[in-house]
Write a structure and sequence with these properties.
Distance between the termini: 9 Å
Helix content: 10-25%
Shape: elongated
Number of strands: 6
Radius of gyration: 17 Å
Strand content: 25-35%
Oligomer: single chain
Largest sheet: 6 strands, mixed
Structural class: alpha+beta
Order of helices and strands: HEEEEHEE
Length: 158
Amino acid sequence: MASRRRQILEAGFARLEAILIASGFNTNAGQSVLLNETPELGQDDPDVVIAMLIGDDEPKQQGNKVFLELPIELQAIAKVAKPDVPADDWHPWIAVEDLLEDIKRAWELDDRSLGGLLSCEMERGVTRTAEREAGSTTVGLAITYSLRYSERWGQPEL
């Protein structure tokens, strides 16, 4: 059986992959979800992507179990320009805000314990705008979440 941490990551990733226009979302970013990488988007890449960055888990309490807090950063990334669309018709910050809305709608479901995998409901942290560096091909922002879970000593699946 997979570890509790892996199950949590897979459940969160699956929620992001569900982001499709056909499912009522603003974007099809669910087709382009990346794990632990923040890309620069080139001409052949999708116009928008979501990057799920896994932070360092931190033990909070120890006894019969280890209680951990795992930070997750979800990045909404959009191309600055699209060669096939006139500049007046492509607004990258609108695309990023649409992505942020999609992320919140997909991630913050009624079940914020990820099917009971978390010890308590996830907590939302800050939303920060990524500063665009000169020459960068993308704009974006990130929203953080804190996921708390426990695992038994020597049995990370429990």
